[in-house]
Amino acid sequence: YTLPGWRKYNLTYRIINYTPDMARAAVDEAIQEGLEVWSKVTPLKFTKISKGIADIMIAFRTRVHGRCPRYFDGPLGVLGHAFPPGPGLGGDTHFDEDENWTKDGAGFNLFLVAAHEFGHALGLSHSNDQTALMFPNYVSLDPRKYPLSQDDINGIQSIYGLPKEPAKPKEPTIPHACDPDLTFDAITTFRREVMFFKGRHLWRIYYDITDVEFELIASFWPSLPADLQAAYENPRDKILVFKDENFWMIRGYAVLPDYPKSIHTLGFPGRVKKIDAAVCDKTTRKTYFFVGIWCWRFDEMTQTMDKGFPQRVVKHFPGISIRVDAAFQYKGFFFFSRGSKQFEYDIKTKNITRIMRTNTWFQCK
Amino acid sequence: FPLVRMTENEENMQLAQAYLNQFYSLEIEGNHLVQSKNRSLIDDKIREMQAFFGLTVTGKLDSNTLEIMKTPRCGVPDVGQYG
């Protein structure tokens, strides 16, 4: 049973509020994966927005709620509902906050219920095929398995058609250490090492040892994404790595549980969407974050952003009037890299002491 | 006097009517009829629901039918009212 669907393939969604039952990142993941179930078999694309009106507005509500003509009934019973494509309430999806939402088999798996409700938000009605995701009753399937039955796929493809042919994936390029134009995504110290991140790889050098190791990031931290954007070592023997609005904390070779977290938990305003570079001054235990032409300073001891920031980078580091790709501290100096150039900076006298190529660390001839 | 407790049957019928109201448009079609508890309409709706879920179509509120009605589920109506 299908209705006319959305008249466009690119749809937006917004999570208006979060259930306290799950970590915020777990809710984001369950919703994203619930939508991907359908984008895998259609030309549909879903983009998350954090303000304004999205096509699919998602909320956790109880009992009678707002303008919604349907109501919830406390624990068990009705778990969620959604509205067919259209303006206003169309596409909106509500989950009953009186349920126990989980990301595994206990309680009600948010991913499974979300994927079902998004079927409605895209134009599918209930199916009487007991193996279908669009069957109305909750069935505790293995959330790791792909949940759509052929009945579901036939239904959604009868509205939107088949997925567009994906463009042939570009072969991932392998960066070369002595490429004169080499740039870095992020650089950090790590105990007695320095790590240079680039795409899916990293180089490691050890203090005063000439050899250079070249590894896949995933060989240390499989859960980390490629193309990181910033990294630094904090005073507690941990590394923090950043990508878009997320950051991960690493101790040794383990990514700590409950990560990624949002960079906004560090005190960045909502308008900041990514971090370009970060470096922690071991002496003052203050971490500088670089975003475009601005820098913030974070007090590692109080875990708060210092007042009076952001400041323009060039104001706080005279001479550094560039956008910073990566930064790290080595033997007391800050090193800012931008493109294939690197600036050695004396933070006491506040001036550039040397300008080098970014890959001078790799003993290139 | 102690309140007369609803018999289990009455409770089950009340649950069934709420379920059929919500998911099989009993109330809309029944309108004022539901006030007079028109059994045949309720039996029809039970049959419709049993057919949808692949149960034995009896029009009677048997244990299998009740069990399905008590299973946590989606709040969108099953057929007809979606839209």
Portion of residues in beta strands of chain B equals under 5%
Count of DSSP-assigned helices of chain A: 5
Mean pLDDT of chain A: 89
Figure out the total of helices of chain B.
4
Number of strands of chain A: 25
Distance between the termini of chain B: 48 Å
Structural class of chain B: mainly alpha
The largest sheet of chain A is: 5 strands, mixed
Total strands of chain B: 1
The coarse silhouette of chain A is elongated
Give the CA-based shape of chain B.
globular
Helix content of chain B: 40-55%
Widest sheet, order of strands of chain A = 2-1-3-5-4
Distance N terminus to C terminus of chain A? 68 Å
Mean pLDDT score of chain B: 80
Notes on the protein architecture:
Chain A has a five-stranded mixed sheet, covered by helices on one side. The radius of gyration of chain A is 24 Å and the shape is elongated. In chain A, about 15% of the residues lie in helices and about 35% in strands. Chain A has helices spanning about 25-40, 110-120, 150-160, 215-220, 315, and strands spanning about 10-15, 45-50, 55-60, 80, 95, 100, 110, 185-190, 195-200, 200-205, 210-215, 230-235, 240-245, 245-250, 255, 260, 275-280, 285-290, 295-300, 305, 310, 325-330, 335-340, 340-345, 350-355. Chain A contains five helices and 25 strands. Chain B has about 80 residues and is an all-alpha fold. Chain B contains four helices and one strand; from the N terminus they run H-H-H-H-E. Chain B has helices spanning about 10-25, 25-30, 40-50, 65-70; one strand spanning about 75. The interface of A and B includes residues 99 and 130 of A. Strand 4 of chain A pairs parallel with strand 1 (about 75) of chain B.
